[in-house]
Amino acid sequence: MTLPLTSEPIPRQWDRRGLPAWTYHSPALFDLEREHLFLNHWQVAGHVSDIPAPGDWLAFDLLDERAVILRGQDGEIRAFMNLCRHRGARVVEGAQGKCRGALVCPFHGWVYNLDGSLRGVSRPETFGEGVDKAAFGLKPLELEIFGGFLFLRFRRGPQPSVAEMLAPYAADFQAWQSGNLLPVDVAGWSADLPVNWKSVRDVDNEGYHVALAHPSLQDLYGRDYRDLYLPGGLHVSYGFYGDRPGRRWSVRNYVRHSPVREGLPPHLQRTWAYYGLFPNTVIAFTPESAQFYHDLPVSPGQTRLTGRLYRLANEDRQTRAARYLAQRIDRDTSAEDQQLSIWSNESMRSDHFEGFHLSDLEYGLRRHHDQLRDLLPVMREDHAPPESQIPALNDELLCARTGQA
User: Fold this and answer.
1) Which domain holds residue 292?
2) Phi, psi of 290, deg, nearest 5
């Protein structure tokens, strides 16, 4: 299969170690990750089809910050902090919903227009000289749309615009017609794991384990699975299927029902494709469906896996059957990966754990670790520094690197 994207070559000699075990359970490091990895990097929160009409909204919470994405009366989609400017209450509650022309804070009844501006306050005469409506609108957040998917970040950070960053994906997303997807369900899905978020990424960032750990995926595309390493830390995985009927029930019937989509280029025609976004997100496509999923850190030892599923707008009965079968395969795969993440994370606390020794097929894991080390150089320390010294040491290492540059 000839691919339009060219992978960076794997070096002949490279450091096959992973991150040291202490980085998977350090509270001080977790605090640095909150500040320098998650709140200032782009996160996928949904798709334009999740909020098709004025007043429709999506909520997105991450590490004590909370956002609402709202379609205005003018049809524009905007993101705001989900914080009333009066006392900080949530102006929307839940994962998704619809409001009639305005957002009303349930605490004291402050009212916000769908563009985030303050419409009015209850009992305005009790605020002395009054409330300056122009100064008390909902706080806006950065929001970008790429291929129909909604990206936000709580703070400005080192990543460029989404369009610039994901430019290598643009042709594929256009071919998948990702902007025309429709949601499968309302709330999406979630699962909580007793692991550090990096253990989840470690499993998902390599295909070495597919042959043994994922019998359905191996049956479907394991013979011709490829990881591509792109500039900017991007990572694409393609699994090509259809050359064999499949032995397992779900795979055999999926291959039989999976549609041949007109307009897809050859490298996407019978393909499951996974597009990675640093630090914690994947957008995946099959010929009949799409999804995004990400690993949202909750604490050093807890991670919430969440995602949303999408379908084609013109889905027929055969395509719907294929989507159901694909979800069966994916459900089993997710359960298998969750168990692997738990086992891997457990090992990080063992006195006998001596670190990773990575295969060339796990180079994607090393690349991800290198990106983390670049942003948080304290992760290069083989042995855990005292917890109280980790922030200062990280600052010192950053300053030393800047001085050398």
Assistant:
1) 1-41+182-405
2) -150, 165
The DSSP bridge pattern shows strands 118-120 and 77-81 to be unpaired
On whether both 206 and 250 belong to a single domain, the answer is: yes
Please, which residues bridge with residue 354 across strands? none
pLDDT digits (tens, 9 = 90+) for 229-247: 999 889 999 999 998 889 9
Task: Confirm whether 173 is domain-assigned.
Answer: no
Q: φ and ψ at 384, to 5 degrees?
A: -65, 120
| CATH code, 2 | 3.90.380.10
Asked whether residue 165 is assigned to any structural domain, the reply reads no
Tell me what pLDDT residue 271 has.
96
| Domain identity same for 68 and 213 | no
250 and 212 together in one domain: yes
Query: Tell me, what DSSP letter sits at residue 197?
Result: H
Amino acid residing at 380: R
Q: Please tell me whether residues 84 and 144 are part of one structural domain.
A: yes
Question: By C-alpha distance, which of 224, 201, 366 is closest to 294?
Answer: 201
* Residue appearing with tokens 């027929």: 316
Together in a domain, 262 and 405? yes
Facing residues of 294 across strands? 281, 306
Confidence check: pLDDT of 405 > 60: no
* 63-81 pLDDT tens trace: 999 999 999 999 999 999 9
Residue 404 has pLDDT above 80, yes or no: no
Write a three-state SS string for 303-339: EEEEEEEEECCCCCHHHHHHHHHHHHHHHHHHHHHHH
- This prediction has a pTM of 0.95
Q: Judge contact between 369 and 386, C-beta under 8 A.
A: no
Q: Where are the beta strands (DSSP E) in 14-139?
A: 43-47, 56-62, 65-71, 77-81, 96-98, 103-104, 111-112, 118-120
